User: Fold Secreted protein from Streptomyces hebeiensis.
Amino acid sequence: MLAATNRVALGAAVTALAVGVAGCSGSGSPEGRAGAHGAKGAHGAPKNVVRLIGDGSTAYTGPQPHRAEQARLEPGRKPPQFVVFSWDGAGEDSQKLFSHFREVGKKYDVSMTYFLSGVYLLPEEKASLYEPPQHPRGSSDIGFNDLDGIKNTLRELRGAWRDGSEIGTHFNGHFCGKEGGVGQWSVEEWQSEIKQAKSFVKNWKTNAGLNNEPPLPFDYDKEMIGGRTPCLEGQKNMMRAARTMGFRYDSSGIGNQVWPKKKDGLWDIPLQLVPVPGRDFETLSMDYNFMYNQSGTASGDPSQHEYWGDQMRDGLLQAFDRAYKGNRAPLIIGNHFESWNGGTYMRAIEETMKAVCGQKDVRCVSFRQLVDWLDAQDPKTLDKLRALRVGQAPKGGWERYTATPDPASPAPASGRAAAHAGQHVRH
Assistant:
């Protein structure tokens, strides 16, 4: 149950690719902050505009507050440095990390993406409403929730959206591996999973009986435009299903720090290989991956906790610096609301936000805001950006490089991620 402190067990090794593991797992004014990077002047929701949807679990309340309009990059200009902080299986439990990081986001002007697991809005006694592909009805590898956990999670979801952050999906039961895991699912089974993830968000009042709770202030059919699969498995068939169901992007892949491209009609924005200071390999840009490479367990040697958190923070800062001073590729960071190894990775994330989000030309945004910007660009400009390799600044400077887009530029090398083949990824 989500209300318990430790709700997600460590997954099994699933993919021979790259280094490490890929982990899975409110308080404050609902009006949120003044606006994320460039959002000043963005349209807030008109007052007193509420149109209930379905059973009243969700509602249209007007345009999202603090969401900026995205403009095309002008010729001769350096692109912004985007940084995306995202959270898998987002829910508010006894650790209160959802509410904590909402406050951190306001402090450092950060919009984030919260990938909600739909079963976190489904009470245990209604578990049978969930029909997971290739598993018995009512089963879930991350459990379900209790009424207090649902109410607390709803409070943070409302506030997060009003802060200008995004509510994406981590789907539902978090099944991994060869025995019916998401990597084994067909397109049709993924369609069922996505429909159910939407349904649990759109019908929590009926399912949980919480009729006196206020609605979520968004239409989830329009809000849910992307996600990350459990264990980073099943991306191919999931994307085939999702492209017909309102998705605009996916972040289930493994890649390098280069500019993203579209796959099957969706923006493919993967987790990235980043440095591990003091080690001779790179790992995925996620707290779980650092934890697995350092201790292999969520409860490692306490004397090493501070060092491990510093190592993650410094690795992310090195990744940021090589993009910021190089190709300006978006830095994609994944996290979980967990206190692994004494909470050292939560400290690392907070310190990373503090260090990077106030720098010149840096925009700490949600995936939605990033894909809005990508969709606004001249395709020829994006071709040129994608021609830059990891950490590669344009020869002759940005003013010359983006002055006249040239689609004939060579494609970026794609061998770095493959060079790590044979090492385990866990999620």
